[in-house]
């Protein structure tokens, strides 16, 4: 049984929902035209926060895990979208090499890998798993909780190609975000499709580039719908030379946090929102929930505990943090039973294929829910994001809400393609 | 509750199922390569007959009705496939004009139209309905059984474009098979996409062209899998100058039926099939179940009753029948409770989006189930055709069976694209 979900049913978000529903043909056409100019990421997931008065993406993952949390009903959509993606990239493909994260003892993560293998196998590919872990020197069987098993194999690199023993793939798909840096074995592969491209990995990628691209997308979209882009756009600032361990850059952090809090305060005043503004400070690269700080008063930054400083100083990949994003905090006003929930939208190619709620009973409305080490309850969207029901009262329809989340998820995905184009080291420059 | 379905669980069809499942990556890649060379029909449905020893398409509909019989779970797949189709044909499209059949008092048919409107609206288009019925001179509201309504409007034709009052579509989609001939209002539209093209309508299309193309497709596919194409291909012959009312051409019919029955008999002997061969005689153009004759002995053709002759002499569209296809009869060995059932596979663009069983309690295993005037029970496929389960015992898995039906449906769809290319009056000929 799926527990009852209380979505944020009042406030400006219902107007936004109504406007989005009324504008479905305009929105879908706009996306079609954008996708003529820009290539969508191969796959992505977007964390969305719904504050009731504002709805915004807060994290766009280009190496999404958690595919196992989608309902069985969503798998055919993912398979169909994967077919569409493969058709465009490499229609002659027979073989797909999937490279997962190294932490192959995490049975939850392995279920995600199993699901991805299933999706691409059903889309008509021979799928095998290769490991970046040098400890894997022979085909290794990994047992799954459901009684199944996966086999992960050592990579075999030749001068120009990457594969496995007796397995030469057309496409190499990473489900490893490269937080620990770009492995040599992935460099200089020009004959095969390496997806996502290396500069999408956290070794190179920066959240500020993403949110800058998102701001551009949000402005275009807001213009299309005749609305204030702030309703879907989290403001942000950046500090480039920070060291939490010795206090370097704390002035930059404080002044930027102060300025951003002021901007949020003015926006709250404009919309009559009676909430306390906050900002979130996190590493500009890296994923997961390491090193995330909620700040309501800039002076807090000067008084961090030793524990917090240590926590903030390194990413989950173990890299020192020097570049930092200060992002407008977006409350989440969705609840499942009494636990705080935030929707996560899953996309394959340009299509929304499903999503789930990340639910956390012990966290507050202004906290990060993707907390490492702490569990969350995935709650699969019960209904498809592709079944909005025009004419139903705003806020009263779960499919309509999911359609809106799917639109915001796609805006963030579009921003990721702008971002990857702008940061592509191999981009041809036309002058 | 879905009644229990007894599929044909024994015999060569299980070997075929197993071979198809084992060959999924090969099959999907082969389809991808075929779709690089050939354009799939915009949408289609294929009637499939599963004899247990043979599995073959018997009718490929390029103006499929019955979309209302798909389960709600299948709609997102149809929406996603419609998005993919629109992206390729006319990404800048805002408006879609849908032209349904004239029989707008048939509430079952209207439910189909309503479902198509829903699918294309959700895919992001403004959808309106235009009528070929000259009695529709103003916007007319048609009530639906579920309390909803559709509005159908008179067509507005300018010199170069077709639309409605204040509605200029990029794409015109026919859900009318043009059995009654090509209406003038649809001719010479070169600025808009008219889908399917006019030569896909029964005014021009011939079943024998389709099954000739299907034979070519079946041979290629059988070669790919190393199997006898007969296992998926219904043999056929043609008589071009027939008049049932005065007996013209009955010699052609008899000699062809005799020869075809002989060929089937030899195949049955080769495979040790202990069934009585039969052939089906029907109009080479036209759809629906009008004028379909089951023949077990060629001499029956010489002794048709006056009623049968009258029945065979005209198509459902009221056109005189002069061209006739004589097709190998394929038994259907599927049952729901004790009623005979045949699967119908629905496709949008290149994707299988769902299907249902046409069930008929009063018909035999060698009879046409798409009988006019008599009811049938649509039984939606419970599970997606995109979720085969490799490793499961052949015949034991409903998803595997549906995957196989989806492959056969796509072979017939591919044959339809070969057919439409070969019969395109505007085709450029490269010499």
How is the main sheet of chain A built? 7 strands, antiparallel
Largest interface: A-B, 40 and 40 residues
H/E series of chain A: EHHEEHEHEEEEEEEHEHEEHEEEEEH
* Structural category of chain A: alpha+beta
The average pLDDT value of chain A, as a whole number, equals 86
What separation lies between the terminal Cα atoms of chain A?
A: 59 Å
Q: What's the shape of chain A?
A: globular
Task: Describe this structure as you would to a colleague.
Two copies of one chain form a homodimer. Chain A is an alpha+beta fold. Chain A contains eight helices and 19 strands. In chain A, strands 1, 2, 3, 16, 17, 18 and 19 form a seven-stranded antiparallel sheet that branches. The first copy, chain A, has a six-stranded mixed sheet with strand order 6-7-5-4-10-11. In chain A, strands 12-15-13-14 form a four-stranded antiparallel sheet, sandwiched between helices. The longest helix of chain A is centred in the C-terminal third of the chain and has 25 residues, at 398-422. Chain A is globular, with a radius of gyration of 21 Å. Chain A starts with a strand and ends in a 9-residue tail after the last helix. Chains A and B meet through helix 2 and helix 3 of A and helix 2 and helix 3 of B.
Quick rundown:
2 copies of one chain form a homodimer. The first copy, chain A, is α+β, with helices and mostly antiparallel strands.
